[in-house]
Design goal:
single chain; mainly alpha; Arc Repressor Mutant, subunit A; Tetracycline Repressor, domain 2
């Protein structure tokens, strides 16, 4: 087990470092194995310092899950504004980002799987999960509405929501396949499958030209 460098920093950065150490422990040992003692050893701090930032292990685990959800959203965001001048390219970029590294990553899947077992038994975990889902779905609704408006169609909110739910479900399924058996899709990128499927859902509106997404 390697120790993290826990340097002098502000309160927010110290808290972030402790969450990062928590995620390292969960990835290696699971939720039960990520004890306060193990996390303190990983971070190179005392257990007392951890208790200064988190009142309990449960609070620390909840903060760690929130970071996993937020991290997946950040990694799926458009990295820059280049070639994002129209709605179709923004939706296309969003889809590709969600089906390629670093979102499609074994560590991310392992952490997500460790936490998701708590969603049905812990109301706080359930709320964190719900907030993450709604934020993601809202982003998709906005992208779909923008694509329709750009194509000269009046975006219907109910239709955009249904499409966002369908697209989100498809991305989730392909994300699982990509992280578990990604080698099976080396010749047929999952992002390309997703884009063609979304184009069909949108009634044939093209999100890309002749090039295949990688």
């Amino acid at each position: 087990m390697s120790r993290r460098s826990f340097h002098r920093a502000g309160e927010a950065e110290r808290r972030h470092d402790l969450i990062a150490a928590t995620l390292d422990c969960i990835f290696e040992r699971g939720l039960q194995g990520a004890t306060v003692r193990e996390i303190a050893a990983r971070a190179g701090v005392t257990q007392g310092l951890i208790r200064h930032y988190f009142s309990s292990k449960d609070q620390m685990l909840r903060a760690a899950y929130k970071e996993v959800i937020a991290g997946m959203t950040r990694d799926a965001a458009t990295p820059d504004e280049e070639n994002q001048s129209n709605a179709r390219s923004r939706l296309r970029t969003f889809i590709i980002a969600n089906l390629t590294p670093p979102v499609v990553d074994g560590r991310t899947l392992s952490l997500w799987a460790a936490f998701v077992s708590q969603v049905r038994v812990d109301p706080v975990f359930a709320e964190i999960h719900r907030e993450g889902y709604l934020a993601f779905r809202t982003a998709l609704e906005t992208l779909v509405a923008d694509v329709f408006a750009e194509a000269g169609r009046d975006p219907d909110p109910a239709e955009c929501r249904e499409l966002a739910i369908a697209i989100n479900g498809m991305i989730d399924g392909l994300w699982l396949e990509g992280t578990l058996v990604g080698d099976l899709f080396s010749k047929t990128p999952l992002s390309g499958i997703a884009i063609r499927s979304v184009e069909a859902l949108l009634g044939g509106i093209r999100l890309t030209g002749n090039e295949e997404p990688s």
